[in-house]
Design brief:
- The protein contains ten helices and 26 strands.
- Helix 5 runs parallel beside helix 9 and helix 9 packs across helix 10.
- It is elongated and about 175 Å long.
- The strands form six sheets. Strands 17, 18, 19, 20, 21, 22, 23 and 26 form an eight-stranded mixed beta sheet that branches. A five-stranded antiparallel beta sheet has the order 14-13-12-9-15. Strands 1, 2, 3 and 6 form a four-stranded antiparallel beta sheet that branches.
- It has 568 residues and is of the alpha+beta class.
Length: 568
């Protein structure tokens, strides 16, 4: 029974493909090498990479392909039984005494019996499909086939090559090479374009020309594909804000001059939206110039942020003494112009100077908050005139009036002094404020004593060859209408030719105020209430501090009644 269930296997070669292509047997008919851009440019990776490739025409041999298969077989029980039966009959006839046919006939019958028995086992039945064993071979050639393929050249290519990069006719980069290593040509673009210091809002495109294998390749890319716009701060400081609006509560930090911060987009004519860390913030466009540079450019100055110091954290902003009780009849007008546009720069910390004056008036000198009138970023003289008219309704002969003015000034034709107005929004006009008219209106108010504290910077508009005596004459002609009356004093922090400087040094010292209002507050903090004692402190400290911090002089000046005092 086991014999009948036995099986076996056998292998044989069969034709798989009569016209198979033998890719190991080929001949190169033609080869043409060329360059192809392999990667996109970006500010993070401003390198133009060209790969050496080849159009190659091959002639391959076609051959007969055969593979070896394995087939399983099993015995056929019927044929085995029939063969054995026939063999048995043949053996019986050959060897039985009943059939004595001689030795030759007996040998023949025995041989037939063996063959009959063997034929039963030789007639096998195939089981399942033939199984390939993965062994293949090519036989004789049957023809040829021609194919063209594009392949990368990975090895060194000893071929002369030249590359040049130009921007608006100016050569940015050029190089001649004797070979291409590893089949790749890399043209670095970042350093050359960073050195150009491009500042146009739309810098346009640049051209790349490469000569290789008797061919010249031309490529054109926008500058924005390798560089990004950055805002480079051009003022001493600019505020980094959380919203595109001027408000004390949305200031995050101050960026110093030279800081470069990536611009996300231009919001409008006033603001850039910038990236600081992972957050979107805003800076004023007038405080920075656009400069194009690569993302990974390691410049000497990146972002230098000065943390925002809340009001009250500077020495003169705290520990404010109470010098007298509430003075209900005292009136104050504070005018601060800070947010100037081109050609003027923003006058930093001017509003904070005004806030400092306001704090001392209310906390130290007893001014009621409703009687302290604060105008910021004045655009028209009428704004000041209307406020003086409002004050005039509340003053009398016993009123103490305090006026503080901070901003840029202008000297018109050497004869008139103006407070520069702040440029308003588009569609409206601005007019500078004539100080002679302002002083005249103040002088007409009935009051007991008047303080005019002025921190106006006229130095930018001083006429050439304007002598000191001419400057003093001009000042006296404007203030005489005030100072002729007893009980009125006018104090300024600098001469006409001297800028009003910030209390800030390049070594990091920063009081967040201009020198003059800082020391005016310091005098009150030291319980100096008379104008003579206040002026003594101003004379002793302003010039020294200006020379120490800026190596430039700044001299305060006083005109009028020197007997005026807050407490006497």
């Amino acid at each position: 029974m086991l014999l009948l269930l036995a099986s076996c296997t056998s292998g044989r070669w069969v034709v798989k493909d009569e016209d198979a292509v033998d890719r190991s047997d080929y001949e190169i008919l033609e080869q043409k090498k060329f360059l192809e851009v392999s990667d996109t440019l970006s500010p993070e990776n401003p390198v133009l990479t060209l790969d050496v490739k080849s159009h190659t025409t091959y002639q391959f041999q076609q051959k007969m392909l055969v593979q070896r298969n394995i087939q399983d077989y099993r015995l056929r029980p019927g044929f085995v039984a029939l063969g054995l039966a026939g063999a048995a009959a043949s053996f019986y006839a050959a060897n039985s005494s009943r059939f004595n046919s001689g030795s030759a006939q007996s040998l023949t019958l025995n041989t037939v019996g063996v063959l009959l028995a063997a034929s039963g086992f030789a007639n096998l039945k195939p089981v399942g499909d033939p199984r390939p064993v993965g062994e293949e071979r090519y036989l004789e050639n049957t023809g040829t086939v021609i194919e063209t393929d594009t392949v990368n050249i990975q090895e060194d290519e000893p071929t002369p090559i030249s590359a040049s990069v130009t921007y608006k006719g100016r050569i940015v980069f050029e190089e001649d090479l004797k070979e291409i290593l590893g089949g790749h040509l890399q043209i670095p673009l970042a350093q050359g374009f960073n050195d150009l210091q491009l500042t146009n809002r739309d810098p346009g495109s640049f051209e790349v020309e490469v000569t290789f294998a008797d061919s010249t390749y031309h490529y054109s890319y926008p500058v924005s594909s390798i560089l990004e716009p950055y805002a480079q701060v051009t003022t001493e400081l600019t505020e980094l804000r959380s919203e595109p609006s001027i408000h004390p509560e949305n200031v995050l930090a101050d960026l110093t001059r030279g800081s470069q911060i990536r611009v996300d987009t231009t919001v409008d004519e006033q603001w850039y939206r910038v990236w600081y860390g992972i957050s979107e913030n805003y800076i004023r466009r007038d405080d920075a110039q656009l400069i194009w540079r690569s993302t990974n450019f390691a410049g000497n100055e990146e972002v230098v942020a000065v943390p925002r110091v809340p009001f009250g954290n500077i020495d003169v902003e705290s520990n404010i003494p109470v010098l007298r009780e509430t003075k209900p009849n005292a009136q104050a007008l504070i005018i601060t112009n800070e947010n100037y546009d081109e050609p003027l720069s923003r006058r930093e910390n001017t509003h904070r100077d005004g806030q400092l004056m306001e704090e001392y008036l209310q906390k130290s000198l007893g001014y009621e908050s409703s009687n302290v009138h604060h105008l910021t970023d004045v655009q028209q003289p009428d704004q000041i005139y209307r406020q003086i008219d409002i004050i005039s309704d509340a003053v009398n002969d016993s009123t103490e009036l305090f006026v503080y003015i901070g901003g840029y000034g202008e000297i018109d034709n050497g004869q008139e002094l103006y407070l520069k107005s702040v440029t308003p929004a588009a569609g409206t006009s601005a007019r500078d404020v004539p100080l002679r008219a302002v002083f005249s209106r103040i002088a007409s108010l009935p009051d007991g004593q008047t303080w005019i504290v002025s921190d106006i910077d006229f130095s930018r508009t001083l006429p050439e060859n304007f002598t000191e005596s001419e400057q003093e004459t001009l000042l006296r002609s404007h203030t005489s209408i005030l100072t002729e009356d007893p009980g009125t004093v006018w104090v300024t922090g600098s001469q006409l030719e001297e800028p009003s400087r910030l209390y800030r040094s390049s070594k990091g010292e920063d009081k967040k105020h201009h020198i003059f209002p800082y020391f005016f507050a310091r005098a009150l903090q030291q319980n100096r209430t008379s104008v003579s004692r206040i002026y003594d402190l101003l004379r002793q400290n302003i010039s020294y501090t200006s020379r120490r911090l800026h190596e430039r002089p700044q001299q305060p000046m006083i005109l009028g009644d020197r007997s005026v005092s807050f407490t006497e």
